[in-house]
Design goal:
The protein is α/β, with parallel strands linked by helices and 201 residues long. It has four helices and eight strands, in the order E-H-E-E-E-E-H-E-H-E-H-E. The structure holds pyrazine-2-carboxylic acid and zinc ion.
Length: 201
């Protein structure tokens, strides 16, 4: 069976949002067209309290996109985004919600960021996604969403480590930093993931 995992297709990551990925609205029709071709569709949702430590606004004197460290982990400071219950945290209204069977929220602990849909960045707490997917008999995961080089990438890394067969849909996962993205896609291929286009799926 084939499972589509849609990562963080939320207003704040789309043009007009607080942490926009340029051109990312182009992936929504692609994802809408794909959903009904899969046996199972799940989604991840970045869902931060306003007090989240990844927000530059919670560090007086610091600016968005500066680099820092939390408990020995490298951390980029972000603009406020995907605040629980806010418009920016909602899935795009252009995304077809119908086929999505389950939603996994992440980034809810104010002390630690969570790029992957499986674990926080310190790999301390699981979201429950891996257990859910195993319970449903999923093996082949097809990943898409935002940002391609951040949350989709880290979701892919964890998925490989968790033993799933990973397919990364490049034309349905727009990166924030295209140069970093190329390196990261190669890292995924090196670990056995398949990087492919949506055409033909
Ligand atoms: C993301 C930065 C901070 C993402 C989430 O969804 O790629 N990026 N939080
Ligand atoms: Zn976030």
């Amino acid at each position: 069976m084939r499972t589509l995992v849609i990562v963080d297709v939320q207003n704040d990551f789309l043009p007009g949002g607080s942490l926009p990925v340029p051109g990312s609205d182009a992936i929504i029709p692609v994802i809408n067209g794909l959903m009904r071709r899969f046996d199972l569709v799940v989604a991840a949702q970045d869902w931060h309290p306003q007090s989240h430590r990844s927000f530059a606004s919670n560090h007086p004197g610091r600016k968005p996109f500066e680099e820092t460290e939390f408990h020995g982990l490298a951390q980029t400071l972000w603009p406020d985004h995907c605040v629980q219950g806010s418009h920016g945290a909602q899935f795009s209204s252009a995304l077809d919600p119908g086929p999505i069977e389950a939603i996994f929220r992440k980034g809810t602990d104010p002390q630690i960021d969570s790029y992957s849909a499986f674990f926080d960045n310190g790999h301390r707490k699981a979201t429950g996604l891996a257990a859910y997917l195993r319970g449903r008999g999923a093996k082949d995961l097809y990943l898409c969403g935002l940002a391609g080089d951040i949350c989709v990438y880290f979701t892919a890394l964890d998925a490989i480590e968790e033993g799933f067969d990973v397919h990364f849909i490049v034309d349905a996962a727009t990166p924030l930093d295209p140069a970093a993205h190329a390196t990261r896609l190669q890292a995924l291929r090196d670990r056995g993931a398949i990087v492919l286009e949506s055409r033909g799926l």
